[in-house]
Amino acid sequence: MAGKELDGFHFEQMHGKDRVRVARVWRARDGRHFMVEWNVSISLFSDCIAAYVRDDNSDIVATDTMKNTVYAKAKECTEQLSVEDFAILLAKHFTSFYSQVSGAIVKIVEKPWERVYIDGQPHEHGFKLGSEKHTVEVFVKKSGAVKLVSGIEELSVLKTTKSGFEGFIRDKYTALPETRERILATEVTASWRFPDISAVQLKMPNLHFLPVNISSKDNPAIVKFNDDVFLPTDDPHGSIQASLSHFWSRM
Amino acid sequence: MAGKELDGFHFEQMHGKDRVRVARVWRARDGRHFMVEWNVSISLFSDCIAAYVRDDNSDIVATDTMKNTVYAKAKECTEQLSVEDFAILLAKHFTSFYSQVSGAIVKIVEKPWERVYIDGQPHEHGFKLGSEKHTVEVFVKKSGAVKLVSGIEELSVLKTTKSGFEGFIRDKYTALPETRERILATEVTASWRFPDISAVQLKMPNLHFLPVNISSKDNPAIVKFNDDVFLPTDDPHGSIQASLSHFWSRM
Amino acid sequence: MAGKELDGFHFEQMHGKDRVRVARVWRARDGRHFMVEWNVSISLFSDCIAAYVRDDNSDIVATDTMKNTVYAKAKECTEQLSVEDFAILLAKHFTSFYSQVSGAIVKIVEKPWERVYIDGQPHEHGFKLGSEKHTVEVFVKKSGAVKLVSGIEELSVLKTTKSGFEGFIRDKYTALPETRERILATEVTASWRFPDISAVQLKMPNLHFLPVNISSKDNPAIVKFNDDVFLPTDDPHGSIQASLSHFWSRM
Amino acid sequence: MAGKELDGFHFEQMHGKDRVRVARVWRARDGRHFMVEWNVSISLFSDCIAAYVRDDNSDIVATDTMKNTVYAKAKECTEQLSVEDFAILLAKHFTSFYSQVSGAIVKIVEKPWERVYIDGQPHEHGFKLGSEKHTVEVFVKKSGAVKLVSGIEELSVLKTTKSGFEGFIRDKYTALPETRERILATEVTASWRFPDISAVQLKMPNLHFLPVNISSKDNPAIVKFNDDVFLPTDDPHGSIQASLSHFWSRM
């Protein structure tokens, strides 16, 4: 955030527009249509303390203007481009067009519209929503420096075997039995930093599938379960986050 | 619902268990695994007015027992079966096992776990979550009569052209221009009734993609848009529901 | 729905507009402001089969027109009115203004904006969002007949004692112990039908707070719990639905 | 995150348990009950690279153990305590009980259960869910150093007048008219850092209430609106984030 000293305090702020939804269609000469749907968030760093303390908005880019800019820039893109290129183009616009804007963050989530196939043939203008989403976040400074992170989210995967968990710490709070056979499932949120791949960040919560084991000391009749009936549950869940990076990327 | 006269009023009630989540794995001899994940809701119609007016639960099937039954029945299914067959099996159990249960409704939503392909080959035990969901709702009476409705939900489709809307009523509340070219998109919820197909029900809200048209009388500089940049929006949206049925299915 | 015979099938349809969000402010002469925020859904029953089979929209009320009507009618209400009165007014407009509309359903959910109190005094124009929501659903026929249902939703209540569950059926699927002491909690959805109160409908799922009991045969060190630490859970949950009605209301 | 060099890469990871839901009841001698419901997330920083590269879990605290610890510690709290104190107590347990844990982050969201009043009197054991939530996030290091942030979230407020927006930058992307009269509404997420208040962070997205203005060049009949009928909308929305801090808190 852009910092400022104010009456003995340090004041930081950014402002922007979230959830600007835009779809762009490109029509090729052969009749095929290409389309994307993007959900865009913009945050600008700028010196606009006057708006907070003196009712002076003369340095303020209205968030409605930011929204219009998304549509105008989408229009200007007459050739299909990647969500990464659009995010950079948009962020660079704000830092170069407005003198008081020192930095811009643009985040975009792309909806997974996929071309429909009919009888094995790609349809010219029909699409269907798929599953995992492509994400991008770019930070552009006034100097032109670009920090770009791409990613995916909402990718759920599962395997029914070849996962175990044993040998962990056992103490007075431990009740979990060891296991050499379990369902392993997660919803992957992954991101990676450019140029080339300089760093990878992974967030992989457990999607738990607990082996069902109904027990009651008074009721031995309930059937025995042996790792074939599972209780999927969301509350609570294990979480694992990790990142891997080149040394030079952290300098 | 099961009706009852009570102090001059008509009283109806049902009780059950919602959101019983169960996963079932079947392992074939050739090493391949098959799995399903179901979210089950159960409602029982029974004469249990004593529980409401006399603190007498002796006719009450505990909803915890219903939950256990889902797991026990899933376990008993040693061969893979369709979600329809499991719903019928479960509902029939409740109406036949408990004398006071006169009817049972079982609804199941199946999560779209799909087998993963690696280098074009199906993986033995790896799965990935897809998009639209398969649904089933079955109503079984004590007599054994079955009413079965299958369906899909959350199937989003879109086409970028060959849709229009013109010739509709124009009155003093009408501002919408006619169009011969627009994006048409919807999230389909469809269901159909058996045996054979006796009725089809469709719910198809518009997923609106509005042509962008930024206007300001003071600012002619904003670029002209011609049906290539769109604003996707959820609030408000048009809704269309329709059903088609054989005469005999309505008798 | 409005029915129609079509090539040997029975065809029914309705169309409308969902999620029309509108806020209305009324300003009293003494400086106080009053405001409501409503989320309106409209469904019209009409004979518009020509639109489905002959590309003829001449009997179609555009859903965009329905949306505009909500705003125009809200404007015409120069005096504050109840959400019930607005729903009736709106539904009656559609059945009387359009000759081909035989019936209209209007559903409204009112957001619980509450006046703010500062130092015990009501603020003139400040509001804060509360919790449970007021709902209304009205069905108006061409004849002018009105069926009105009011309600509340998202009202969560809880008591920490004086609830039990015992004496229920015990069979081979039962593992639940009896209890004379438990937390009882639910999220109430209630509705009632007019004139006077002719019927009441209640939907009261259990919000389960399970007594915590961590057990492990190998680990006796985990502390004993006695009904003071609970696990709140959403999956699965018991559901209870009931209605009470006058006989004459069911004729 | 806890860093580690690994085959020429820098590797960081943390693991924990999210969405551990716990309720705690305290019973006073005078018959009054007190209760809280907390949703707890735990992240531990520890040196457990062996688990990633050598299948060695001997340094791993199972996330199931973390969950049990929440319940055991809640049980040990025989006197009611603040959510801040519970978060600190829990985080300090992990850093002191496990030698390999170098730091712990505990986040808790408290559900706003409020005592019910009947005829103006507080009920002994009845509660009702309110609106905004209390949050806390604490970071405890092995050394015992504590960084504590408290906050609220989901507090929606609105005023119907005395807000304007004028004098902002007008450029070729600007279409927004200036206004001296509008509804101002936001959903506040606020947090503050201890000891005393060393820093305050505010996140205040606009909840837009757009003045309705239906226009159509062909249809002048639609009523004129003058700042009394509004369209509430979520997509897109302006976002404002700011923080204020003492200099010494940033050292």
UniProtKB/TrEMBL annotation, chains A, B, C, D:
Involved pathway(s): Purine metabolism; urate degradation; (S)-allantoin from urate: step 1/3
Annotated source species: Punica granatum (Pomegranate)
Family: Belongs to the uricase family.
Amino-acid positions noted as binding urate in the UniProt annotation, renumbered to this chain: T63, D64, F165, R182, N206
Role of this protein: Catalyzes the oxidation of uric acid to 5-hydroxyisourate, which is further processed to form (S)-allantoin.
Official protein name in the record: Uricase
GO BP terms: purine nucleobase catabolic process; urate catabolic process
Lineage of the organism: Eukaryota, Viridiplantae, Streptophyta, Embryophyta, Tracheophyta
Residues involved in 5-hydroxyisourate binding: T63, D64, F165, R182, N206
GO molecular function: urate oxidase activity
